[in-house]
Amino acid sequence: MVFTIELKKVWKIYSNGVPVYALKNVNLEINSGEFVSIMGPSGCGKSTLLHVMGCLDKPTKGKVIINGRDVSKLSDEELARIRNRYIGFVFQSFFLLPVLSALENVMIPGMISGNIDEEKARKLLEFVGLKKRENHLPSQLSGGERQRVAIARALINDPKIILADEPTGNLDSKSGRDVLRLLSRLNRSGVTVVVVTHDESVAERAERVIYMKDGKIIGEKA
Ligand SMILES: Nc1ncnc2c1ncn2[C@@H]1O[C@H](COP(=O)(O)OP(=O)(O)O)[C@@H](O)[C@H]1O
Ligand SMILES: [Mg+2]
């Protein structure tokens, strides 16, 4: 299935306190099957862009169009439904629940959407190379292993797109490479991947690199 995300003249202004212009008139189109990396200095708006793209947050102005539908004014509930159906997130700090096993962590999104599929969670752990770690708690796993559990979790609802925010930021270089290889493999299997990173080697792997500065997209390498 074709899957597209379009941002049209998107602004994000945080106004809790002194207004912060985090996104300034951003236009961007992400198409099915792409591997896109987003680079830029700390504070330039990369995470905000990912959150707006992924319906975790709404733009202050402008449109976010997913599969031709403007979602920028939908209710939080409707946005949650879109996230559940299409989007998988991976964060720098994993966000695994410490009291749940690897397998249970992978099943969480299924618990929320009301379809728990233990067999599928097992297969996903196998896919990320953690078949033998099913019953481990996050504290019993290395950073790279935790991130791979988080990736398996992001895949449980068959997302069309994975949005990864500095997924290798807390990992040593070998684990980081493993995680990136995994994201590439996913991309080859048809999942669109957008990765925010500081790492030039990630950017080399991506077919599109988008450069941001001060809330704007300032360039792109294709
Ligand atoms: N919830 C928030 N409230 C107020 N300001 C925020 C919030 N989130 C981010 N910002 C500000 O918006 C700007 C962009 O932040 P962010 O998108 O996190 O940048 P990056 O991911 O590139 O480091 C920064 O100046 C940051 O301080
Ligand atoms: Mg960030």
Could you describe the 3D structure shown?
This protein is an alpha/beta fold and about 220 residues long. The protein has helices at about 45-55, 75-85, 100-115, 120-125, 145-155, 175-190, 200-205, and strands at about 5-15, 20-30, 35-40, 60-65, 70, 85-90, 160-165, 190-195, 210-215, 215-220. The strands form two sheets. A six-stranded mixed beta sheet has the order 6-7-8-3-9-10, with helices on both faces. A four-stranded antiparallel beta sheet has the order 2-1-4-5, with helices on one face. The two termini are about 25 Å apart. The model has no long low-confidence stretch (mean pLDDT about 95). The structure holds adenosine-5'-diphosphate (ADP) and magnesium ion (MG).
CATH level 3 topology: Rossmann fold
What's the order of the H and E elements?
EEEHEEHEHHHEHEHEE
Strand content: 25-35%
Oligomeric state of shown chains? single chain
Domain count: 1
Helix fraction, binned, reads 25-40%
Low-confidence stretches: none
Mean pLDDT metric: 94
Short description:
The chain has 222 residues and is of the alpha/beta class. The chain has helices at 46-53, 76-86, 102-113, 118-127, 143-154, 173-188, 200-205, and strands at 5-14, 20-30, 35-39, 61-66, 69-70, 87-91, 161-165, 192-196, 208-213, 216-221. It has 7 helices and 10 strands.
